[in-house]
């Protein structure tokens, strides 16, 4: 084990203990009777999904090489989760899990598989009931802006068929690898862009227009904002990269190649991308405030999986995966433990934190609960629980998971399960050894305890077998790898 890994591990143990103690003390002073009452009317909802941002890529999670003051403000005015997990270690299944409330042992899309012809990934089936469908039924105006990746034009998984009133951005996630695409989709029509137009800016502008328009209507809105930053390619307008070229001057001769034009100095590009994104989020929050909507709007932010290592990105330079082992496509903590922030002024205690183990499949029941249309208890097909009690400080009322489960039919097939402090990982096929970790004592997953705790290993292996249903479209051990 390197000195760097040891330092990160020791830091995490110390920081984790402090966060747990701080959370316990904060909540001890807020009894269940003090939990804020339900809102008089359903709030607006803005859910921002970053693309391939790691646990350590935000200032409020320890990033020091660039600043994210607007995102950090969400943490300062809301709650920061330290054990939140994405739906998967890659893009499409993570989004599927988020929008359906199912883990990747049950949801329809479990990998980044593309359709043989046409534009887009394997689509959501036509009978899918999404988060957007449920909010739409509850009276919400719904809009999605950014990268979809769950069905191309004319498919059963097109966003307009999946509960969204409007969509703007990329239908196909592979096309979203280029930030100067010359075109984007608006609903079911192609919109031509100037070749010099940065797609992220166009997407943010449409999201802001949606929010401004809906602010004048007596109807709550759901703005789903799956931005493309910081996925490779590492493209950003030079005005945002330039301030970091001196900071990372030793990388001026390093080229990053992924899609579109190559870039020089990928670290400066990455820092510039994150700085621009933070600026955009600050502008969005200002608009909510100026329009008088901020106290009746829930803002959430997360990332779809851990940090990538593509297009010249150097995640270790930035400690993008924080103190954790693994990256995108790994079911170790670094590939699936992600930042999660939630702000609801006057209802979520500012500066609070939670170490509750939760995941993307909890977002659907949580937002439906907030909207006043919660799923029925034990509703078939849902794996998530509502996080509303945890958000509002009523942790004594919070339903906990028995376990969290993931599978990824790429690179030979991988599975993982977390139950309490214990986590098991089988990565690389059915014949790969089962690794067992106590992630409260060893968050960096450095010490395999399967031999020392064989009963616990068997217990979690039983869950790996029973927590899933077989998918004919995404068989666990024979799906080819795609980006």
Describe the structure.
The protein has 483 residues and is α/β, with parallel strands linked by helices. The protein has one domain (41-402): 3-Layer(aba) Sandwich (Alkaline Phosphatase, subunit A). It has helices at residues 3-28, 69-76, 91-100, 131-137, 199-215, 238-245, 266-290, 315-318, 333-336, 363-370, 388-391, 454-466; strands at 44-50, 79-81, 84-85, 141-147, 166-170, 183-186, 189-192, 221-226, 255-256, 263-264, 297-303, 340-343, 352-354, 358-359, 404-408, 414-419, 422-427, 435-438. The strands form 4 sheets. It has a 10-stranded mixed β-sheet with strand order 7-6-5-4-8-1-11-12-2-13, with helices on both faces. Strands 15-16-17-18 form a 4-stranded antiparallel β-sheet, covered by helices on one side. A hairpin with a 7-residue loop joins β17 and β18 (435-438).
Summarize the helices and strands and which ones pair or pack:
Blueprint: H1 3-28, E1 44-50, H2 69-76, E2 79-81, E3 84-85, H3 91-100, H4 131-137, E4 141-147, E5 166-170, E6 183-186, E7 189-192, H5 199-215, E8 221-226, H6 238-245, E9 255-256, E10 263-264, H7 266-290, E11 297-303, H8 315-318, H9 333-336, E12 340-343, E13 352-354, E14 358-359, H10 363-370, H11 388-391, E15 404-408, E16 414-419, E17 422-427, E18 435-438, H12 454-466
Parallel strand pairs: 1-8, 1-11, 2-13, 3-14, 4-5, 4-8
Antiparallel strand pairs: 2-12, 5-6, 6-7, 9-10, 11-12, 15-16, 16-17, 17-18
């Amino acid at each position: 084990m390197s000195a760097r890994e040891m330092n990160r591990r020791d830091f995490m143990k110390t920081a984790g203990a402090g966060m747990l103690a701080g959370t316990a003390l904060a909540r001890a002073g807020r009894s269940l009777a003090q939990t804020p009452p339900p809102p008089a009317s359903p709030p607006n909802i803005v859910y921002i999904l970053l693309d391939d941002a790691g646990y350590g890529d935000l200032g409020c999670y320890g990033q020091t090489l660039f600043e994210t003051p607007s995102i950090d403000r969400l943490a300062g005015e809301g709650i920061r989760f330290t054990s939140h997990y994405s739906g998967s270690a890659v893009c499409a299944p993570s989004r599927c899990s988020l929008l359906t409330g199912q883990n990747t042992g049950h949801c329809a899309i479990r990998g980044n598989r593309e359709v043989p012809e046409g534009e887009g990934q394997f689509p959501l089936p036509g009978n899918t009931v999404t988060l957007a469908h449920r909010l739409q039924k509850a009276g919400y105006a719904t809009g999605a802006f950014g990268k979809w990746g769950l069905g191309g034009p004319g498919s059963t998984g097109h966003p307009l068929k999946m509960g969204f009133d409007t969509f703007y951005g990329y239908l196909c996630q592979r096309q979203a690898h280029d930030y100067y695409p010359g075109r984007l989709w608006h609903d079911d029509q192609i919109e031509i862009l100037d070749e010099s137009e940065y797609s992220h800016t166009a997407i943010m502008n449409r999201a802001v227009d949606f929010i401004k328009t809906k602010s004048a209507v007596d109807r709550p809105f759901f703005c789903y904002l799956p931005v493309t930053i910081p996925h490779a390619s590492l493209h950003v307008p030079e005005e945002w990269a330039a301030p970091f070229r001196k900071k990372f001057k030793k990388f001026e001769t390093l080229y990053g190649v992924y899609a579109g034009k190559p870039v020089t100095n990928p670290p400066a590009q990455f820092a510039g991308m994150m700085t621009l994104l933070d600026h955009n989020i600050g502008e969005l929050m200002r608009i909510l405030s100026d329009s008088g909507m901020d106290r009746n709007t829930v803002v959430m932010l997360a990332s779809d999986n851990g940090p990538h290592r593509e297009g010249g990105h150097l995640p270790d330079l930035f400690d993008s995966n924080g103190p954790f082992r693994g990256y995108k496509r790994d079911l170790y903590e670094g590939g699936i433990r992600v930042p999660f922030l939630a702000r609801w002024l006057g209802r979520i205690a500012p500066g609070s934190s939670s170490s509750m183990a939760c995941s993307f499949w909890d977002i659907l029941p949580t937002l439906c609960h907030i909207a006043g249309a919660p799923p029925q208890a034990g509703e078939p097909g849902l794996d998530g629980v509502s996080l509303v009690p945890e958000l509002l400080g009523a942790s004594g009322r919070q339903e906990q998971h028995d376990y969290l489960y993931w599978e990824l039919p790429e690179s030979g097939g991988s599975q993982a399960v977390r139950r309490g402090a214990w986590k098991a990982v089988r990565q690389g096929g059915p014949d790969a050894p089962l690794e067992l970790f106590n992630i409260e004592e060893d968050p960096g997953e450095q010490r395999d305890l399967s031999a020392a705790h064989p009963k616990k290993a068997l217990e979690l292996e039983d869950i790996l077998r029973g927590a899933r249903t077989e998918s004919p479209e995404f068989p666990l051990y024979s799906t080819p790898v795609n980006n």
